[in-house]
Amino acid sequence: MSENANGIAGNQARTESGYVIGIDVGGTFTDAVCSDGLTTWRAKSPTNPARFSDGVIGACGLLAQAAGLSPAGLMERVTRFGLGTTAVTNVLATRRGRTVGLLTTKGFENHLHSMRNHRDVSDGWIEKFWMPIEPEAVRGINERVDRNGDIVRPLVAAEVIEAARDMIERNGVNAFAVSFLWSFRNPAHEQQVVALLKENFPDVPVYSGVDLHPIMREYERTTLAVLNAFAADALDGVEELEDYLRGLGLKCPMLLLHSGGGAISAQEARQTPLALASSGPAAGSVAAGEVAMTAGLPDAICCDMGGTSIDVAVVTDGIPERRNTADLGGIVIGQSAIDVESVGAGGGSIAWIDDRGLLRVGPQSARATPGPVCYGRGGTEPTVTDAMVLLGYIDPASFNRGGMQLDIEAARNACARLGERLGMDAMGIAYGIREIALAEMSKAMRARISSGGLDTRRYGVIAFGGSGSLFATAMAKELDLPWVLTPALASVLSAYGAATADIRRERSRAVDQFLPLANGQAGDSLRELIERAEEDLAAQDVEPANRSVHCEAEVRFHRQNASLTLTIEDEELDSALLLETFRDNYTKQFGASSITAKTPIELSTLRVTGIGKTIRAVLPQSQAQGASEPLVPIGQRDVYLTARAPTPVPVFAAADFRIGHSLHGPALVDVGDTTLWAPEGSVVELIAGGTLKTTIG
Prior knowledge:
Layout lengths: L6 E3 L9 E7 L3 E7 L3 E8 L6 H14 L4 H5 L2 E7 L2 H8 L5 E6 L5 H4 L4 E4 L2 E4 L9 E4 L2 E2 L5 E3 L3 H15 L3 E5 L8 H13 L5 E3 H4 L5 H13 L5 H13 L5 E4 L5 E3 H6 L7 H17 L4 E6 L4 E7 L2 E2 L1 E2 L2 E3 L2 E3 L3 E2 L2 E3 L5 E5 L5 E7 L18 H8 L16 H13 L5 H27 L7 E5 L3 H11 L4 E4 L6 H6 L4 E12 L6 H19 L7 E11 L6 E5 L6 H16 L10 E12 L22 E5 L7 E7 L8 E3 L2 E4 L4 E4 L4 E5 L3 E5 L2
Parallel strand pairs: 2-5, 5-14, 6-9, 6-12, 12-13, 16-26, 26-27, 33-35
Antiparallel strand pairs: 1-4, 2-3, 3-4, 7-8, 10-11, 14-15, 16-17, 17-18, 17-23, 19-22, 20-21, 24-25, 27-38, 28-31, 29-30, 29-31, 32-33, 34-37, 35-36, 37-38
């Protein structure tokens, strides 16, 4: 596998269509990937939390330099530009969005803030989760549609306009959310209100629950509308960035990654900004699925560890598992997304001492500004990265391919200051930080294994992100997982996902009919959803040959809360087949005794996802032939495997691996912009796609 300072060569023919760029804006670094079909370059630039576009522009400049072009020369040759942005995540994290007013059915003004009695537990205290709307900014409208969709109480336009004007004048509202109780059965009233608000208050954005999520469960539908309204300004920086890049010569539209693992345009994202939350981890999960299939190991747990958090997802048969509702900071919303669990334990997680005198790590993060103490940017509190540098796992001289010199003495002094409060030295604190962070990460992965009922004999780990390979092998060893994969693009895999994700459009509709179906109404709905998904793809200039649709049905026992998601084959709704498939799957998942013969089974929801294939980057392919020379260490580092004394550990270069080489731990493998830790008893080898596989002993 030949490699220069910034690029990895592949065996693909050079594409004539130009360059493909993928960007992932993280909390600490902005990762970037550029591919021309023959060579894949990568870059990392510090993220500016105040203006994320700075990191994107800096990363693009580094990519251009690596490709031997000027920034303008690169941009004018780009045929695809994918961006995973934290713009929406930052709005939610800082709780700085628009002031939202909610119009809902009269008598249901309090259902949003009750949060279904969902509460947070923090250090033993039970607290309500944050809700981005004040109770005083909710108005009940005296309208009513019954469960059959019939209008019981007509809407009065004057009441709507008066309530909206009162919210603006009294509560300072500058964004509206509209969500009525039975609007998914009959959206007429909600559509009327949206039209009235846009006509009378044209400068105030309006988000409709039924337009965003026309499904039963008014709570998830309402929270989705409210959070979209709250984040209405989040894309302002994205559009400014797109204008800047167009000034450099970018001709293709910018594609933004959404939490479902697909891509949408900036214009579409403006209509549903919340879809961009957690876009980076979703993109990484999609890319990890490709890595898993290339390696011939299709079942894996994704471990994406960056500077701010560790994100855990599950890939089965190369496809990331999804969920039909998402949880954002304790608020459940009706938005389909890749199922990613995040824990605040990343490289920038800050170590601190709580009121009980115990050492803690995270969830607070130093992020990019000021960053870990060893970055020399003004940080004073020790982080996980500081501990790993001090313990010898990270080489301060070769961090980020030598692009950043780390200050090990500053890290030592920070750990020593914290240790004084506990009567411990710097090395003891550093060792404790690593152990606590590792325990938090393992807890997150163990919870995912338990909740999903995963067979640990089948599932391994795909480690990516800047710090993933330093911790994933230790977690796998603790959890009895058999192997860990470190992709060639491990540190920038989410950016690679941004450069490869398909365009995805989802349409859904509530059905709520018993199986077998008594009429063809559900079949008509499915065909209409397919037609609308096709129209969505056509609007994005996806050629018919590159379009496909994936149809699903939500089926459940009558009045049961949970449902099973079943694939509809050949775009045809066969109710007898759905009934049989549901019973088979339900029996497999919950046991034969859970099936009740007399309980009706109902088709609750139809969902159609339109998928458009686009120009995409390719994974680097190893050109390495069989090993003709033995694998030789490039150096040695003293690593504190315990807090007492260091152990000399050999260091190898990933670029030196050839098919047939095997490396026995303990050892460190320098990948350039990340480091792989191979614990004692493990074996590292090179496999397909330039991926390093660590088999856990």
